[in-house]
TrEMBL record:
One of its GO terms (cellular component) is cytoplasm. Belongs to the kinesin light chain family. Kinesin is a microtubule-associated force-producing protein that play a role in organelle transport. One of its GO terms (biological process) is microtubule-based movement. It comes from Anguilla anguilla. The keyword Repeat applies. This is Kinesin light chain. Keywords: Coiled coil, Cytoplasm, Cytoskeleton, Microtubule, Motor protein, Repeat, TPR repeat.
Length: 406
C-alpha cells in the first residue's frame, strides 16, 4: 500500500515543487477513494456479521474487519501527511509572496533614495548659483559705492590740490615686483592690475573735467572689463586731442593709461606704440629730464621685460634711473624702486655682479630712509638672497634669510 502512495526516493529528489504538489493531490484523491472503498467493505462486513450465526464464520469476518480498520487508519494517516504537505506548500507560497513584496519595497526605497539624492544635488547646485549671485551683487554694490565716492571726490576738490597742484608720483616704478617676478624666463604679470597702478601718472594732474572718466577707466580695467575701459579711454583721448592738440602732456598721460590697459590684455605692440608716442610728447613738452619722462621710460622697460627683451629694456631703465637720481636725489625711495627694476633686468641676463650692486644700493636707501622694519627692506633682502642662491653663495643667502625671519 505504501508503494502506491509515495513515489520512489530517487525520483523524489528530482521533482520540482509544482510536481510534488501535483503528485500529492493525486495521492490524496487515491487515498480518499481507497478510504471510501474500505469503509464500504467494512460496512458490508459488519452487516454480514449481524446475519451470521456460526461462531467460526463470525470470527473470520471479525478478523477481516479488523484488518480493514487498520488499513483505513493507515489511509487516514497518509491523508493527514498529505494534507500537512499541502498546508506547508501553501505556507511556503505565502512566504514567497511576502518575500516578493519585500523585494518590491526595497526596489521602491532604492528608487526613492536615488530620487532624494538627485534632489539634493539639484538643491546644492541651486545653492551654489545663489551664492554666486550674492557674491556678484556684493561686487556690484561695491562698484556703486565706489562710483558714489568718485562723485564726491569730483565735487569736493581739496584746497591743497587747487593751490599746490603738485603732480602725483608715478606708482609704476614697481612693475617688476620685488619677490615674485624675479625668476622664470619672462617677467610675469603683476598681481595688481597695471591699469590700477596707472591711477597716479607722473607729470601732470588729471583735469577735473576728465577725472571721473579717468577713474572709470581704471575701475573697469581692474575688473577685467576691457571692452568698456578701452572705449572710455579712447574717448577721453579723443576729447583731449580736440581741445588741447596732440602734443599736450595730458594727451601723453592718457596714452600712457591706454598703453597699460593694452599691456594687461597682452597687446604689447599697441602698448609699445602708445608709450613711445607718450614719451615723445613728454620729452617735447616737459623736457628730457622730467619725472614724467622717467615714468614713461620705466613703463617701456617693463613692457620690453615682459616680452623677454631684457637687453632693449636695460638702457631705458638706466636712463629712468639717471633722471630720478638727478631730480629726486640718489637716496630717494623712488630711486630704490628703479634700482630694483634694473637689478631684475640684469638678473635675467645673468649679470650677477651688477645685480648685487643695484640690490645693495636699493637696500641701503630703504634702510636709511624708511627704516629697517619697512616691507621694502625685507623684499629687497629676499631678492638679494635669491641672487646669492643662483650664484651658489649659500652662506650669504642664509644670513639674509635669517634677518628676514627675525
Amino acid at each position: 500500500m505504501s508503494t502506491m502512495v509515495y513515489p520512489r526516493e530517487e525520483r523524489l529528489e528530482k521533482l520540482s515543487q509544482e510536481e510534488i504538489i501535483s503528485n500529492t493531490k493525486l495521492v490524496i484523491q487515491g487515498l480518499e477513494a481507497l478510504k471510501n472503498e474500505h469503509n464500504s467493505i467494512l460496512h458490508s462486513l459488519l452487516e454480514t456479521i449481524k446475519c451470521l450465526k456460526k461462531d467460526e464464520e463470525a470470527n473470520l469476518v471479525h478478523e477481516k474487519s479488523n484488518l480493514l480498520r487498520k488499513s483505513v487508519e493507515m489511509i487516514e494517516l497518509g491523508l493527514g501527511e498529505a494534507q500537512v504537505m499541502m498546508a506547508l506548500s501553501s505556507h511556503l507560497n505565502a512566504v514567497e509572496s511576502e518575500k516578493q513584496k519585500l523585494r518590491a519595497q526595497v526596489r521602491r526605497l532604492c528608487q526613492e533614495n536615488q530620487w532624494l539624492r538627485d534632489e539634493l544635488a539639484n538643491t546644492q547646485q541651486k545653492l551654489q548659483k545663489s551664492e554666486q549671485s550674492v557674491a556678484q551683487l556684493e561686487e556690484e554694490k561695491k562698484h556703486l559705492e565706489f562710483m558714489n565716492q568718485l562723485k564726491k571726490y569730483d565735487e569736493d576738490v581739496s584746497p591743497t590740490e587747487e593751490k599746490d597742484g603738485e603732480p602725483p608720483k608715478d606708482s609704476l616704478d614697481d612693475l617688476f615686483p620685488n619677490d615674485e617676478e624675479e625668476h622664470g624666463p619672462g617677467m610675469q604679470q603683476q598681481h595688481n592690475s597695471a591699469a590700477v597702478a596707472a591711477a597716479q601718472q607722473g607729470g601732470y594732474e588729471i583735469p577735473a573735467r576728465l577725472r571721473t572718466l579717468h577713474n572709470l577707466v581704471i575701475q573697469y580695467a581692474s575688473q577685467g572689463r576691457y571692452e568698456v575701459a578701452v572705449p572710455l579711454c579712447k574717448q577721453a583721448l579723443e576729447d583731449l586731442e580736440k581741445t588741447s592738440g596732440h602734443d599736450h602732456p595730458d594727451v601723453a598721460t592718457m596714452l600712457n593709461i591706454l598703453a597699460l590697459v593694452y599691456r594687461d590684455q597682452n597687446k604689447y605692440k599697441e602698448a609699445a606704440h602708445l608709450l613711445n608716442d607718450a614719451l615723445s610728447i613728454r620729452e617735447k613738452t616737459l623736457g628730457k629730464d622730467h619725472p614724467a619722462v622717467a615714468a614713461t621710460l620705466n613703463n617701456l622697460a617693463v613692457l620690453y621685460g615682459k616680452r623677454g627683451k631684457y637687453k632693449e629694456a636695460e638702457p631705458l631703465c638706466k636712463r629712468a634711473l639717471e633722471i630720478r637720481e638727478k631730480v629726486l636725489g640718489k637716496d630717494h625711495p623712488d630711486v630704490a624702486k628703479q634700482l630694483n627694476n634694473l637689478a631684475l633686468l640684469c638678473q635675467n641676463q645673468g649679470k650677477y655682479e651688477e645685480v648685487e650692486y643695484y640690490y645693495c644700493r636699493a637696500l641701503e636707501i630703504y634702510q636709511c630712509r624708511l627704516g629697517p622694519d619697512d616691507p621694502n627692506v625685507a623684499k629687497t633682502k629676499n631678492n638679494l638672497a635669491s641672487c646669492y642662491l643662483k650664484q651658489g653663495k649659500y652662506k650669504e643667502a642664509e644670513v639674509l634669510y635669517k634677518e628676514i625671519l627675525t
